Amino acid sequence: MHSNINKEKMNKIKLDKIDQQILDMLIENARVPFTEIAKKLSISAGTVHVRVKKMENAGIIKGASLTVDYNKLGYSFIAYIGIFLDKTSKTRFVLERLKEIPYVTVSHITTGKYNIFCKIRARNTEHAKDIIFSIDDIEGIVRTETMISLEESINDKKRLMHYIFNKEMS
């Protein structure tokens, strides 16, 4: 156990204020040009490039993504589904079947009440019902429990990062 903790500490990269500010801007807009970041931070674009590369190599930055507003595409219905399996050995099989359903946008293997917990997006309740029924039909699933999202109240990509940075700085 101690060797894993020591490895984790050894692999942990120390980020300074500039690294944090670069991350902040990239989280806000993954497509922001390095020249714009450099200008805002009064450093060279080369410095930004080197620091981003360092964070990529350390695995802190994993690619870049953009956010799609599914509401504007007509998929505003969100539900979370807790999945009960007949055997835990079916987990991988069920996850592979879930990947075949494009409306399943997130899934987690979990402890506690459910074996798998996933998020779906649908056009409306009728569409969600069809998705849930298709999930229920997957071999190895005993039953599911569905929770409908009434509103996404917190979706903050920066809050935890800022907390971690501020905690380490104090």
CATH homologous superfamily label of the largest domain: Lrp/AsnC effector binding domain/regulation of amino acid metabolism (RAM) domain
Report the count of strand segments: 4
| H and E order | HHHHEHEEHEH
Fraction of residues in H or I helices = 40-55%
Q: Would you kindly provide a written description of the structure presented here, covering whatever features stand out?
A:
- This protein has seven helices and four strands, in the order ααααβαββαβα.
- With 170 residues, it is α+β, with helices and mostly antiparallel strands.
- It has two domains: 2-63, Winged helix-like DNA-binding domain superfamily/Winged helix DNA-binding domain (Arc Repressor Mutant, subunit A, Orthogonal Bundle), CATH 1.10.10; 70-148, Lrp/AsnC effector binding domain/regulation of amino acid metabolism (RAM) domain (Alpha-Beta Plaits).
- It has a four-stranded antiparallel β-sheet.
- Strand 2 (104-109) and strand 3 (116-122) form a beta hairpin.
- It is elongated and about 55 Å long.
Give a quick summary of the entry.
The protein is an alpha+beta fold and 170 residues long. It has seven helices and four strands. It has two domains: 2-63, Arc Repressor Mutant, subunit A, CATH 1.10.10.10; 70-148, Alpha-Beta Plaits (2-Layer Sandwich).
Q: How are the elements arranged and paired?
A:
Layout lengths: L1 H10 L5 H12 L5 H8 L3 H13 L19 E9 L5 H9 L4 E6 L6 E7 L2 H12 L4 E8 L10 H11 L1
Antiparallel strand pairs: 1-3, 1-4, 2-3
Helix pairs in contact: 3-4
Descriptors for this entry?
four-stranded antiparallel β-sheet, 7 helices, Arc Repressor Mutant, subunit A, Alpha-Beta Plaits, disordered N terminus, elongated, 170 residues, alpha+beta
